[in-house]
Specification:
The protein is mostly helical and about 325 residues long. The chain has 11 helices and 2 strands, in the order βαααααβαααααα. The chain has a two-stranded parallel ribbon with strand order 1-2. The radius of gyration is 22 Å and the shape is elongated.
Length: about 325
């Protein structure tokens, strides 16, 4: 039998006390916004966007707060966990995880439309440059999901499969959870819940060996998504932005279409984290709408065939 990797990464960078301390999940957002700022400012300096370089910091800050954070969190609540509305305080506890990429995209669409109107610049041109750097954020976000051991994949026996202890928290795995608690109490009587086992795992090697006989190997779907939605999507959009000259709106449409296709594919390897809709996971279902939106952006962009004015000293690709 293969010795599958058992996920035991600590979600905390370090603990100050109890469950308080900086987490890798939060660090992922900091890195995403920092990289997004640097890359968008580079595009502004090269004349690809109507944003002036000195405007980029202001734009990224508000886009992060009102687009990504607010839109992503509300999307998670409404699309995946509407029961959280019964406990409004749970909505603001973003450090515990729970963001929707689809919600974040909707939030960014609304915010960039307002920002472009407010500053009298091309909304489609602004969006075209924002989507080029967006995959960096998706990459860091999926890496954070992996560190947290959440959003794991479906069962598999492939050599690179992994064991994710958080499957014990899934209501569908009650039998495994009960077995794990019974075995864990022989190691430490204070481990009376699956949550306690997961929290103690990084510091208790004996739990790892015990869990290897209980957990099931799964796809590391978070890493699949980090690669496709982050690395591959960024490479495609960066190439199109810097090596070709497309009408405003085309890159935005290309982002939506490619992201949706990658998400639909990866969802076949990811354990559904909510009930299915018409036989599709929620990630797949919402992605179908993104494809339609993306195609609309591409078609409208090609028909309008407008190019936002670049700085006169910058020569864009022909």
């Amino acid at each position: 039998m293969l010795a599958y990797y058992l996920h035991d990464l600590n979600p905390f960078i370090f603990r100050i006390w109890g469950n308080f301390g900086p987490r890798w999940y939060g660090m992922a957002y900091v890195l995403a916004f920092l990289c997004g700022f640097l890359l968008l400012r580079l595009l502004a300096k090269r004349g690809y966007t109507q944003l002036r370089p000195e405007q980029v910091g202001d734009f990224i800050t508000w886009a992060a707060l009102f687009g990504v954070m607010l839109g992503g969190r509300l999307g998670y609540v409404f699309f995946y966990r509407p029961e959280m509305l019964r406990d409004p305080l749970s909505i603001v506890r973003v450090w515990e995880g729970g963001m929707s990429s689809h919600g974040g995209m909707i939030g960014l669409i609304v915010f960039t439309y307002w920002y472009a109107w407010r500053h009298k610049i091309s909304w489609m041109n602004l969006g075209d440059n924002l989507v080029v750097v967006a995959p960096i954020g998706l990459f860091f976000g999926r890496c954070a999901n992996f560190i947290n051991g959440e959003l794991y994949g479906r069962l598999t026996n492939l050599p690179w499969a992994m064991l994710f202890p958080k499957e014990l928290l899934d209501p569908a795995n009650v039998a495994e959870a009960e077995r794990a608690v019974a075995a864990a109490q022989r190691i430490d009587p204070s481990l009376t819940t699956p949550e306690a086992i997961v929290n103690a795992l990084p510091n208790e090697p004996r739990l790892r060996e015990m869990l290897r006989s209980i957990l099931t190997p799964r796809h590391p779907s978070q890493l699949y998504e980090a690669f496709l939605e982050g690395v591959v999507l960024f490479a495609i959009l960066w190439f199109v932005r810097t090596r070709t000259r497309q009408p405003d709106g085309v890159l935005t449409g290309l982002f939506f279409v490619c992201y949706a296709i990658f998400r639909i594919v990866v969802e076949y390897f990811r354990e559904p984290d909510a009930s299915l809709i018409a036989g599709f996971t929620r990630g797949q279902f919402f992605s179908f709408f993104l494809i339609a939106i993306g195609l609309a952006f591409i078609i409208i962009g090609k028909i309008r065939n407008r190019h936002a004015a670049a700085k006169p000293e910058v020569r864009l690709p022909a």
